[in-house]
TrEMBL record, chains A, B:
EC number: 3.1.2.12
Pfam families reported for this sequence: Esterase (PF00756)
Family statement drawn from the similarity comment of this UniProt entry: Belongs to the esterase D family.
GO terms, biological process: formaldehyde catabolic process
Protein name per Swiss-Prot or TrEMBL: S-formylglutathione hydrolase
Top-level EC class: hydrolase
Gene Ontology CC: cytosol
Keywords assigned: Hydrolase, Serine esterase
Originating gene: fghA
Amino acid sequence: MELVSETRCFDGRQQQYQHQSSTLNCNMQFSVYLPPAAEHKPVPAVYFLSGLTCTDQNFATKAGAQRVAANLGLALIIPDTSPRGDDVADADGEYDLGCGAGFYLNATQQPWRQHYQMYDYIVSELPQLVEQHLPLNDRRAIAGHSMGGHGALVIGLRNPARYLSCSAFSPISNPSNCPWGEKAFSAYLGDDKAAWKQYDSCELLREFGQTLPLRVDQGLADNFLDQQLKPEVLKQTLSDVGGDGKVHLHEGYDHSYYFIASFIEEQLRFHARYLQQ
Amino acid sequence: MELVSETRCFDGRQQQYQHQSSTLNCNMQFSVYLPPAAEHKPVPAVYFLSGLTCTDQNFATKAGAQRVAANLGLALIIPDTSPRGDDVADADGEYDLGCGAGFYLNATQQPWRQHYQMYDYIVSELPQLVEQHLPLNDRRAIAGHSMGGHGALVIGLRNPARYLSCSAFSPISNPSNCPWGEKAFSAYLGDDKAAWKQYDSCELLREFGQTLPLRVDQGLADNFLDQQLKPEVLKQTLSDVGGDGKVHLHEGYDHSYYFIASFIEEQLRFHARYLQQ
């Protein structure tokens, strides 16, 4: 992996890297924040998965997370949202399929399956890479926003041995039953809905239960609330399976980074409880 | 003035407005943050002037200032950096002249003088407008970054009756003697350098002294340090005129919003000392 840029931020290091991904078969960029504590010892990491149309830059520049991460001694690992490059399949003019919309799954269908293997990239290749080259220990948490909230819930619930805690802002909670999810899953996974279940947090909760500590924050003035995000389905499912994970509903907040910025401290403090033990 | 958008942020209101400016002869947008305290009583305001190429959005989305402003009960008023619109003169393809580069002065030369009256807009029209329509009292501070740091210093030093304190990140301290300033001042003000002095913070300090409380933060890994920003000239001038304003130099920090985010809390707390008295 090659350092693209580095700048000081809250006495730590805000970095961007690029590397050739063998999982995605393309060149990828990602961002990293290393807190001051990482100068002296390996630190735990929170992976943050971003939403539709985002790159590794949105969360890095808009969430105000570095202040809290510096304080708590946590690294932030911020991947891109899909494979990228001239030979990567894309859906021309569509923001919710193709580049910027990888949905954190392993595609099985053409023309997507050669590059769109974001699940394996996030779960395996990226942690292995950064833990080899950066001052990180093996304590990980996973978080995300919207499409990345879906990704964080799915990846966390399926890999409780790899992540100590899981959180999401405004996640696509039940992608099998909303327009964004149906469109993406049909394209990437095909029409057999049995294959969709492994990428649907509500289905995973029903199958495995709440496998790790979990927190969700959702704004009630979010434009996508009822049609795409469905926090009430997630809340009901958590209750049905006896999970103690909380879905915090916030009056007046929308789907933007102003919402994330307002509650990122609470989410990172939630993760720190498990990461610092 | 017309509300373009509003979203909740740290329990306050992040807003964007547009209005027809009679000073600039064009339609303008600006952003506002109202802290929770403004629901109950008029609050003081910090005006933040942004740098070259910016709009009202950069500081609003990247500085992490709302958290601190909410805490301290301060409003943030974030103007655009120049007049805008199809009939506003521009310098094609140049980032440091024309749109996005108003330099917070009143242009006297063609083709600029019809619209480029940012000094009067910031000092008079905008405060009058927002204080009439928003829950603001008449206690104001002014701050800015780079070109906006120059603007804040100039506007603050010339108007100590209107602003209680003044601060800047990485300001263009001595624009009469650096490439950015020489290019802009020649175009907007003409070649007679006597007319430049009223827009040069070091010249103003020599003429009037330090007329109000002042704080500057400057990163030492800033690419523009020696050629454009010249903090040492500002520091020397402050010392020569017996000012108590501090120029804080920060090892390893660059010109970016990561630097602003790292120290915005200290700058807003500096202003709160004067605004809340």
